[in-house]
Design goal:
mainly alpha, 123 residues, two-stranded parallel ribbon
Length: 123
């Protein structure tokens, strides 16, 4: 039964990550950590959700607007995905240096919100 509780909690976390990412306006970005703090989870949960999107979700969701800490395209991302993320962010007017850092980050940062007191498990 514990495994079922985990999968229910993960489904709820996944749905909320997708909802929050969909709200990031074009030309802005946020970080895995910012979403995680808002949701009261760890950044890895957010990264895991985004790295396992279906092709349909990936096409519909602005996943490229979520970057690593310090406004950087994640160095852990597969190179093809990182190139696509860079291209999509540039198309929205963001400038990115050769190391993957978004320039003038404060001008483009999307604040997800303050930490919410959420318990993701049912029990």
């Amino acid at each position: 039964m514990a495994a079922r509780g985990k999968s229910v909690a993960f489904a709820r976390i996944r749905a909320e990550v997708i909802r929050l990412v969909a709200l990031i306006p074009a030309g802005q970005f946020t970080t895995y950590g910012s979403i995680a703090i808002h949701m009261n989870v760890i950044a890895r949960h957010v990264a895991t959700v985004l790295s396992h999107l279906t092709p349909e979700e990936s096409a519909a969701l602005p996943w490229h607007r979520v970057v690593a800490a310090n406004a950087r395209i994640s160095p852990n991302m597969p190179p093809e995905s990182a190139r696509k993320q860079r291209r999509l962010l540039k198309a929205e007017g963001l400038r990115i240096d050769k190391e993957g850092f978004i320039q003038d980050a404060d001008d483009h940062f999307h604040n997800v919100g303050v930490r919410r007191d959420i318990r993701w498990s049912e029990g």
